[in-house]
What we know:
The model is unreliable at 18-24 (pLDDT under 50). The protein has a 5-stranded mixed β-sheet with strand order 2-1-3-4-5. It has helices spanning 2-25, 53-65, 150-167, 169-174; strands at residues 37-43, 71-73, 82-103, 110-129, 135-142. The protein is an alpha/beta fold. Helix 2 (53-65) crosses helix 3. It starts with a helix and ends with a helix.
Amino acid sequence: xxxxxxxxxxxxxxxxxxVTSIAQEQRKPPKKPEQPxxxxxxxxxxxxxxxxxxxxxxxxxxxVAKKKKWLKVVDNRESADLVVEILTHIVNEVHVRExxxxxxxxxxxxxxxxxxxxxxRHRIESRITLPSGGQTMLTGVDDRKQGGSVKGxxxxxxxxxxDHCKEHYWELVxx
Length: 175
C-alpha cells in the first residue's frame, strides 16, 4: 500500500512538472504584437551583368513592408530590432521537357506532343542579426514549375522572417 502511494505521488509530480514545462515552451505569441518589429534591410552586394543586388534588396523591403502586423521597415540601422543583410540572389534556369497526349479531333486517336520550356528558380539568401547579437540565415525561394520570380522569392523570405518573429516572439521581446 505504501509503495502504491509513493508511485502515485511520483507520477503526479512528474506529470505536473512535464505539463508546466510544456506550457512554458509552447507559450504562444499574440495574434498581433503591441508594436511591430522594426527591420532594416541592406546589401553589400554590387550590381553586375547577372544580378542587381540593390533592386533585389528594394524588392525584399517592399515585401517585408507588406507584413504590417508584425514587421515595419525602417531606414536607420540603429533604430532597427532586426537587421536583414541580403547576401545573394541566385537564379537557376532549368530546362523542362514534358511528353503529353491529346485526343485528336475525332476523339479516337491520340497525338503525342513534346512541351519544352525554361523554368527559373529564384533564391534570395540573407543573414538576420537579432537584437541579442546572434545571427540566423534565412533563404527565400520561388521554385515554382513555371513563373518563378524575384518577387516570389522576396515574398517567401518576408514570410519566413515573419514566422521567425512569431516563433521566437518572447525571446525577441525580452532582448
